[in-house]
Amino acid sequence: MGGKMKGKCFLCNKTFSKAGMTKHLKACIKESGETKLFHIMIEGLHDPEYWLHIEISADAILGDLDQFLRDIWLECCGHLSKFTINRESYSEEDMNFQLNRVLKPGMEFYHIYDFGSSTELRLRVVSEREGKIGEEGVRILARNELPLITCGCGKNAKWVCTECIYEGEGWLCDECAKEHECGEEMLLPVVNSPRVGVCGYNGGKYGN
Ligand SMILES: [Zn+2]
Ligand SMILES: [Zn+2]
Ligand SMILES: [Zn+2]
Ligand SMILES: [Zn+2]
Asked: Could you tell me the distance, in angstroms and rounded to a whole number, from the CA of residue 131 to the centre of ligand 2?
C-alpha cells in the first residue's frame, strides 16, 4: 500500500507532512478562550498513514471521544469498543469518565473498535490549553489526505475487495472492479479511514 503521509490543516487549509503538522498547529492555533481543551493526535496503530489532530473539551467524556472516532473513522454496524489508558480498560459502561480525570498532556492511550475484525488506534495528548470550542465539543484541526492506492492496472483504486485485502491485495479501479473474480458484492469503497475494506465499512460522517 503506497500513499503520501501529507495532510491538511483545517484552520489555514495548507498542506503539511505528518511529521511537520504538530509543530505547524502550535503556530496556527491563535484564538484563546476559557474552555480547557486537549489537543489529541490520533493514528491507525497498524496504519499510521491515517491520522488526525483534534481539539476536544477537557469536560467531554470518553463516550464523546468514542462517538467522534466512530463518526469519522469506524462505525459500520455498532460493534463494541474500548479505550486502554494507563493499562486500565474503559469499555462502553465506563465511558462516562471526563477526559480531565483520565488524561494528561504527553499521555499515550489506545482505542479498539470491534473485537473481531478490530481497528486499533493510538492516541496521544499533545497539549492542553484554554480555548473556545463549538457546541459539539470537538473540532478537527488536521487530517491526512486520502492515501493514493493504485489498482494493478495503474489507475487509482476506488474499491477494495474484503476478501483479497487480507493478502494485501484487491485494490481496484472502477473497470477492474467489474471483472474482479470475488464478485462485486465483496467490494467496499476506498475511503479515508484505517477501517477501509473491513467488515461493512463504507465511510464516515465527515467524508474523505
Ligand atoms: Zn494551519
Ligand atoms: Zn461491522
Ligand atoms: Zn477479491
Ligand atoms: Zn484497474
From this structure: 36
Write phi, then psi, for 141 (nearest 5 degrees). Answer: -95, -40
Give every CB contact of residue 122 below 8 A, 6+ residues apart in sequence: 42, 43, 44, 45, 108, 109, 110
Interval 57-84: pLDDT, tens: 999 999 999 999 999 999 999 999 999 9
Residue listed under C-alpha cell 495548507? 14
Cα separation, 101 vs 90, whole angstroms: 13
Tell me the one-letter amino acid at 74: L
- Say which ligand is closest to the CA of 155: 4
Q: What is the distance in A from the centroid of ligand 2 to the CA of 59?
A: 30
pTM of this prediction exceeds 0.85? yes
Give the domains, in start order, of the chain with CATH numbers. 7-144 (3.10.290.30), 149-201 (no CATH)
